[in-house]
Amino acid sequence: MSSFWTGKRVRLRGVEPADWEVFQSFTEHSADQRAVDRLYPPRSAAWFQEATAARAKQPSTDLDLAIESLETGELVGSLSTHGVDRRAGRFGYGIGIGHQHQRNGYAAEAVVLLLRYMFGEQRMHKCEAKVYEFNEPSLRLHRSLGFTEEGRLRAHEFLAGRHWDAVLLGMTLPEFVARWELPQV
């Protein structure tokens, strides 16, 4: 029997306190930091140890998952949900893949696994994502998965000396099942 959380390239798992060094290494690429969130000042090993230990406890209802390569067993990134609205059936998510692991299909497979869970097991109806206008690889990824651009927040974030638009993308359950399968029992 295979795990629901395992695809052909990746396995989603809980964040472990020992993951702190890999998460710290992901911050060494400034463009990736900006693409996912923003550029942060350097942080100590102690900070990463504490922050990763807190993530490992998953104190909220949001998911915070590590993305592991099946081929190498390496931690290649993470993804998390946010803004889960059970009444409306809506949620958002974010994903980050370490620079050296990008363009290997890890993000696409991890997102499909997450969507399959949220739509098929958590009764969600819509997923929302926000991508900065300069992050063309992420915009291509989302469009290839079936997300639709729903709008823009103009001059929404300040990064690298200027304001950038945030592109709002969404996918509904019917749009998901038109491309991907729901979980099998």
UniProtKB/TrEMBL annotation:
Molecular function (Gene Ontology), one example: protein N-terminal-serine acetyltransferase activity
InterPro entries to which the protein is assigned, alphabetical: Acyl_CoA_acyltransferase, GNAT_dom, Ribosomal_N-acetyltransferase
Domain of life: Bacteria
Official protein name in the record: N-acetyltransferase
High-level lineage: Bacteria, Bacillati, Actinomycetota, Actinomycetes, Pseudonocardiales
PANTHER family: RIBOSOMAL-PROTEIN-SERINE ACETYLTRANSFERASE (PTHR43441:SF11)
GO cellular component: cytoplasm
Segments forming domain N-acetyltransferase: 10-174
SUPFAM superfamilies in alphabetical order: Acyl-CoA N-acyltransferases (Nat) (SSF55729)
